[in-house]
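re: ur question from earlier - yeah i can do the single chain one, its not a big deal. heres the input i used so u can compare w yours
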Amino acid sequence: MGEKKRKEDAKGIFVFGKKNYKFMFIGLACIALGFILMSGGGSDDPNIFNPEIFHWRRIRLAPAIILIGFGIEIYAILLNPDK
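and the output i got, formated as tokens:
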């Protein structure tokens, strides 16, 4: 009888709350958006240089969005779901 009760008690425990998971998905979306913004800008022909690779979007904006996403992830992990 005691083993059955322990299994029932352990079944419904989550590590994070609903609020934590919302912030985690927002952080993952920010990280994915940053990597999408960072992609592209290359040239198909190796003999042709494309200066678009040094555009401010790839050098400044995308890494900033990725760092913001990582910050949101850290906040989501440290957030107390009981408050």
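The chain is about 65% helix and 0% strand. not sure if urs matches, ping me
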